[in-house]
Amino acid sequence: RDELLFSYKGILYPVTFCSPEVFKAMESLEARSDDMILAGYPKSGTNWLGQILSDLLVIFEKKTQNKESSVNDEELEEFPYLEIGDTGKYERMNKLPSRRLIFTHLLPENLPRSIFKNKAKILLLLRNPKDVATSFYHFTNRMSPLPSYETWDDFFVAFMTKKMPWGSYFEYLSKWNKYANDENVMTITYEELKENPVLGVKNIAAFFGISLTEKELQSVVERSSFQSMKKNSQKTHGAFGDVLFRKGGVSDWKNLFSEDQNEKMDKAFEEHVGGTKLGAKLKYEVYCK
Ligand code: A3P
After folding, report:
1. Tens of pLDDT along 34-71?
2. Residue 237 in contact with ligand 1 by CB distance below 6 A
3. How far apart are CA 56 and CA 136, in angstroms?
4. Does the UniProt entry include the keyword Transferase (predicted)?
5. What is the structure's pLDDT at 69?
6. ipTM of the complex as predicted
């Protein structure tokens, strides 16, 4: 299990996806104020929000005809996950025309400094810890580059003791909490988007300064529904699609958590993020009890 992960600045990452050399090269990224950055702990719904943001970007570009005609489409392609790639990725990204879409699971302190310095806009995605742990457990057991666990109980111990790739859920929340009032950071929860996708998409578009007609709004909402994304997943994510679009709902944790695990999670939540802005945003009393 251990050889699948390596530690960088005290956080574990999968060797298949990340490397210390890439982390060092990342510092050369020149962020821009019109970059659209999506930050979220793994299994919070990154692919869902990614779909929404890329549709919004297409709409924006159509309206502003922002694409440089001299750049061909191949040159526009760069895998959107910031920390996954090769050491040349950031120099190539620096040459891409605006606007760029960037996804990341990193802690704020491990992001290139230019993101904050140049006031890039960050959409911070949160999901309740019980569903994140549940989703992570099923995912890690079906993805060969990630460690697998014989039992849910084994996984739970690892999740609670910071042995996850990309680090601890609670540390993620408490570190990002320092940015919760930043005007360039907007937070959204998986649960609120699930309850009211129309409002969620509207707010996200407004945050990134993208105007939408009613028809465009409906189309973004429809194309990002769990059903549509699952149906298209072979095309968009290949074999990986089946693993990724699992249940797409709230409260599946109730099928896994024991009484004792519930108590441990409740205690950890209170201890690490109780009384914080992001803690409140998650509505723990509603979604985790
Ligand atoms: P479940 O495992 O609970 O089903 P990430 O993209 O960050 O890896 O997160 C994956 C989780 O988001 C999975 O949760 C997945 O089913 C869910 N998801 C993906 N697309 C979704 C959508 N369009 N609507 C709701 N949930 C979605």
Report:
1. 999 999 999 999 999 999 999 999 999 999 975 554 44
2. no
3. 27
4. yes
5. 47
6. 0.99
Pocket test for ligand 1, best of 17, 38, 41, 43 (most atoms within 8 A of CB): 43
Closest ligand 1 atom to 139 CA: 2
User: What digits encode the pLDDT tens for the residues 72-124?
Assistant: 455 557 899 999 999 999 999 999 999 999 999 999 999 999 999 999 999 99
- What separation, in Å, do the N-terminal and C-terminal C-alpha atoms of the chain show? 32
Q: What is the pTM of this model?
A: 0.96
From the list 19, 16, 22, the residue with the least C-alpha distance to 4 is: 16
The finding on whether 229 has its CB within 6 A of some atom of ligand 1 is: yes
